[in-house]
Write a structure and sequence with these properties.
By secondary structure, this protein is an alpha/beta fold. Among the domains are: 87 residues, Arginyl tRNA synthetase N-terminal domain (Gyrase A, domain 2), CATH 3.30.1360; 87 residues, no CATH class; 112 residues, Isoleucyl-tRNA Synthetase, Domain 1. The strands form four sheets. It has a five-stranded parallel sheet, sandwiched between helices. It has a four-stranded antiparallel sheet with strand order 1-2-4-3, with helices on one face. It has a three-stranded antiparallel sheet with strand order 8-9-10. It binds arginine. The site of arginine has 10 residues, from α11. Arginine (ARG) binds next to α11.
Length: 586
């Protein structure tokens, strides 16, 4: 079944074609929620956009489309307002029948696509032997939410972790490994290399200060590239250790099925990738490096800005690997959508790399390739997030601090109420609330906004936060608990009846969810889910204030219980798409 908005769009188009002919068969009318409910529920500017082409005043176009509009049992006859807006008001009976049709549906009436798309989300992607930083955290949280939304809608999904596991830095790391742990490569059991970030710093120091170390590092790079088994073993050891620490973070965040396909995965394809670009005449030598020049890209001095694909020393770089990844994802994975969730600092790289791939003819017309950028994380002082002593924050510490803060809040609340709970229960609630708060704080903003990291704000029970939404769920469920009612077992024949304005508003909001999810994948904006859920909880509150549930007489009582049930399930589903699990009690 079509969602409400696409249904209206289709009817507007039909009316336009019926009135003005087949030349309008390809139009896609824009339909928005009205800002003022006295005008109705939705508004379209279709007449304003067609007026010029039809050589008629917009208002006249609007009146003709409104007259031809098949309102049927869906809405009242449309009205025309202002310069030519068409206003549409849904009928109460339509809202009732839609809710009744989907009230028992596990998917809340959200249809699966006729043609599921195959989608790859490139997300997280930290670098081996380096700290996974807040930028990677944002990529992980945003990527996961986009992936979950696609998956729920019924698309085929692959999440890939494009870890930085290749490059010249491994030369020095391997030499450091041999020096510091001479037995590492000969002993059979795995060795704990300790803090890899400190290890990296040490290696870098030796590399910068010791010429002999530097020379040996270069040898190791060559050995690694030529596949020397001993060097590969050392490389693998470093990767494994890093992987373990990344896995810890993924476990805390509840990230599953993230397939690691690091830069090294594309190694064998790089030479061929550059050769293919060269054969298409796209590669130019510049200062010994192989580059692609694209129209309109200039550097600060106003000279053409190259996309370097092969360095002077013959080494392939980041761009070469990404070009190979596009080819692989299109040709081998047969993906229809390639989504790269990477910080906005890399926008130029992605823009140029995607354009270059297009120029090479590697992206078929029906394949969508998108860089999904996001802003930086700031501390409460408005500067880049750092520890008090000015160092980069370790994600593990950050997440455990979130859990600790949530625990403090919980303890304080319990003390206020004079309530006792088991330590296990408190741990579980704090863990869930703390991690959810971090996710929600990130996702609730437009991702391009630089976001200020504040435990206090993200854990607040007021405002658009995870604890607020998780509470909203608990409260809605509390109504049925109080009445001793199992919402899952409401009579199948019971019907939703909408009487009060607040019931109508809640009903409309419930029926908007599928449209919101379509927007999320159209614009890669999980924040739309947060906005929607917050709105839903407000509408529910207004409903609950105006409409007693348990004390109402039948059949109104059951009708209202159904509205409660659908609200709870919508919140639960919405939060799950943000990577957040609800609690039944908190
Ligand atoms: N490892 C990179 C970094 O930390 C991110 C990789 C993003 N994905 C990609 N296909 N380039 O900056």
């Amino acid at each position: 079944m079509k969602n409400v908005v696409s249904n209206i769009k289709a009817r507007l188009k039909d009316a336009a074609v019926k009135t003005f002919g087949d030349s309008l068969a390809e139009i896609s009318p824009v339909v928005d929620a009205t800002s003022n409910p006295t005008f109705g529920d939705f508004q379209s500017n279709i007449a304003l956009t067609l007026a010029k082409q039809l050589k008629q005043p917009p208002r006249a176009v609007a009146e003709q489309i409104a007259a031809a509009f098949a309102a049927d049992d869906m809405c009242e006859a449309p009205s025309v307002a202002g310069p030519g807006f068409i206003n549409i008001k849904l009928k109460k009976e339509y809202l009732e029948s839609r809710l009744n049709a989907i009230k028992k549906d596990e998917r809340l009436g959200i249809a699966r696509p006729a043609a599921p798309r195959s989608v790859i989300v490139d997300m997280s992607s930290p670098n081996i032997a380096k700290e996974m930083h807040v930028g990677h955290l944002r990529s992980t949280i945003i990527g996961e939410s986009i992936a979950r939304t696609y998956e729920f809608l019924g698309h085929k999904l692959l999440k890939v972790n494009h870890v930085g596991d290749w490059g010249t830095q491994f030369g020095m790391l391997i030499v450091e490994l041999r020096e510091k742990f001479p037995t590492a490569l000969t002993q059979s059991e795995a060795l704990d290399l300790g803090d890899l970030v400190a290890f990296y710093k040490q290696a870098k120091k030796h590399f910068d200060e010791d010429e002999d170390f530097k020379a040996r590092s270069r040898q190791e790079v060559i050995a690694l590239q030529s596949g020397n088994p001993d060097t590969l073993k050392a490389w693998r050891m470093l990767c494994n250790q890093s992987r373990q620490s990344f896995e810890e973070i993924y476990a805390i965040l509840g990230i599953e099925d993230l397939q690691e396909r690091g830069e090294s995965f594309y190694n064998d394809m790089l030479a061929d990738t550059i050769k293919a670009l060269d054969e298409k005449g796209l590669v130019e030598e510049n200062d010994g490096a192989k580059c692609i020049f694209l129209d309109g890209y200039l550097n600060e001095e106003g000279n053409p800005q190259p996309l370097i694909v092969q360095k002077r020393d013959g080494g392939f770089n980041y761009a070469a690997t990404d070009l190979a990844s596009i080819r692989y994802r299109v040709d081998v994975d047969h993906a229809n959508e390639l989504i790269y969730v990477v910080d906005a600092g890399q926008s130029l790289h992605f823009e140029m790399m995607i354009k270059a791939a297009r120029k090479a003819g590697w992206i078929p017309d029906d394949v969508r390739v998108a860089h999904v950028p996001f802003g930086v994380v700031l501390g409460e002082d408005g500067k880049k997030l750092k520890t008090r002593s000015g160092e980069t924050i370790r994600l593990k510490d950050l997440l455990s601090e979130a859990v600790q803060s949530a625990r403090q809040d919980l303890d304080a609340r319990l003390a206020d109420k004079g309530k006792e709970e088991s330590a296990d229960w408190k741990d579980e609630v704090a863990r869930s609330v703390g991690i959810s708060a971090v996710k929600y704080a990130d996702l609730s903003l437009n991702r391009m906004t630089n976001y200020v990291f504040s435990f206090k704000k993200m854990l607040s029970l007021q405002g658009n936060t995870a604890p607020y939404m998780m509470y909203a769920y608990v409260r809605v469920k509390g109504i049925s608990r109080e009445g001793g009612i199992d919402l899952a077992k409401l009579d199948d024949n019971a019907r939703v009846i909408l009487d009060l304005p607040s019931e109508m508003e809640l009903a409309k909001q419930l029926l908007k969810f599928d449209d919101v999810l379509e927007q999320v994948i159209a614009e890669f904006l999980p924040s739309r889910i947060c906005e929607y859920l917050f709105d839903l909880s407000q509408k529910f509150n207004q409903f609950y204030e105006a409409a007693p549930v348990l004390s109402a007489a039948e059949p109104v009582r059951t009708s209202r219980l159904i509205l409660c049930d659908m609200t709870a399930r919508t919140i639960q589903l919405g939060l799950s798409l943000l990577g957040i699990s609800v609690l039944e009690r908190m």
